[in-house]
Amino acid sequence: MTPERHSPTGTGDPLLEPPPGCPAHGLGPGGLHRLHEADDLEELYETLRAQHGPVAPALLHDDVPMWVVLGHAENLHMVSTPAQFSRDSRIWTPLKEGMVKPDHPLMPHIAWQPICSHAEGDEHKRLRGAVTSAMSGLDFRELRRHIKRYSQRIVNRFCEEGRADLVGQFAEHLPMGVMCHLLGMPDDYDDRMVEAARDTLKGTETAIASHAHVMEALSRLATARRADPQDDIAGRLVTHAAGLSDDEVREHLRVVLLAAYEATVNLIGNVLRVVLTDPGFRAQLNGGQMTVPEAVEQSLWDEPPFSTVLAYFAKQETELGGRRIRAGDGLLLGIAPGNVDPRIRPDLDASMMGNRAHLAFGGGPHECPGQDIGRAIADAGIDALLMRLPDVRLDCDEDELRWRSSIASRHLVELPVRFEPRAQQDIMQQPSHTPVPAPRDTWHVGIPKPAPHGAPRMPAYPPQPEPVPVTVPATAAAPPPAPGTGQDRPRGAWQRFLLWWRGY
Ligand code: HEM
């Protein structure tokens, strides 16, 4: 699709614009569909697939032309062929010709920046090498232990209330707590930081002040690690052999924090929504036919946290999905439409268990380097939440749920739930829906000596909150282990190994 010199969008007079519902609504010059005017992007992608096949022409705001890559194979080919397709928007013809203005609503996604996401070739290797090596030293068992503790801490804030919004009070908090910890600034995780990240991504009026708040924290961190490197992501980034400048360190801390934050918030919200609204899905989880990591993977197929990536750009004239692509054309990496390509998923209801070939993390040289961290935050966090609140249920009609959608992503606005109010728990303990007995303070071999008469008993450490009576509905509560089933036996070596492995 050679970018054409279209006349400016519409007439500016709403009376002359086709109203919503009219077949011409949402169409621009050349009869092409305007993606940003679609009421339902998923439906539009299917219309485009039916009309044009796996690569379709469409329009962005200001009628800027863009190919939408809808086919699974075509998306994979594009991301894996850096000789033909690049993430460097400086070669994009509509930008070079001034058709895309600096205030174009998609510029925050598209404008070139000196970061690994937009770099190519040796420069990409240098920047990405520093980022991947900063993340590679992670001990995942230790990470899961931290995720469980952050989850416990966050659930403690609302468990006594009996109701919560799992997007605003859980999904939007957990990834921020864990990422601040991993970057090396655990004390910066607070409500203000969550609000600032949320604002920055939403682009509200306070987005500039919020962005400044995030950047100040990251600058303080970068300066502190230059002076005194520690074993965390920031410390490993400043000491990496690639020799990143102060600006490069700050910008990559930002990319890691915000990319991780937005995607993981969406992923947790999406999985929890399905658990709460699809009884079959929940029954499979409760019955052990599906694990939480498998539920996360299914969600990455059905509702990828980023629906598209803006964008790839053709370096030379080429062909994709039977279309002639000119040098300088822009192409949208279609993650959501690629994941439902009927050539690979003829039956969308069929389980994708064990199949990780979805496009949720992109692919090729830019494939997401943080995917295992994102998966761990989502599955360990959701597991901990469900252990604490096994009777959690939706507190509104399913059709009252609302999403905030853009071309790049779809974000559940709220997930109101109810459950039996429960006491807070010691965050160092295994998440559970019943109070866990305090650990023994000492190991005894043989029969412990009774405490001298009148001597005070040692308190459990850290001090436990007062337990409150817990009522769990019969359907949700785990039944007491039946004698003879083996579950009532003392923990065996395998269970002790599992406890060690899972980190609590
Ligand atoms: C479930 C969570 C996540 C999803 C769905 C996700 C998805 C993606 C996608 C689609 C891309 C672009 C790939 C492309 O351009 O072809 C990307 C890039 C990236 N992601 Fe993630 N991501 C997630 C979590 C994370 C986490 C936790 C981190 C860091 C700890 C992270 C760091 C990055 C970075 C640094 C890039 C740029 C890589 C490059 O351009 O070379 N992501 N991610």
From TrEMBL:
Annotated transmembrane regions: none
Renumbered residue ranges of the record's region Disordered: 1-31, 447-490
Biased composition, class Pro residues, residue ranges: 449-470
Family (UniProt): Belongs to the cytochrome P450 family.
Matches recorded under PANTHER family: CYTOCHROME P450 YJIB-RELATED, P450, PUTATIVE (EUROFUNG)-RELATED
Protein name: Cytochrome P450
Organism: Streptomyces olivaceus
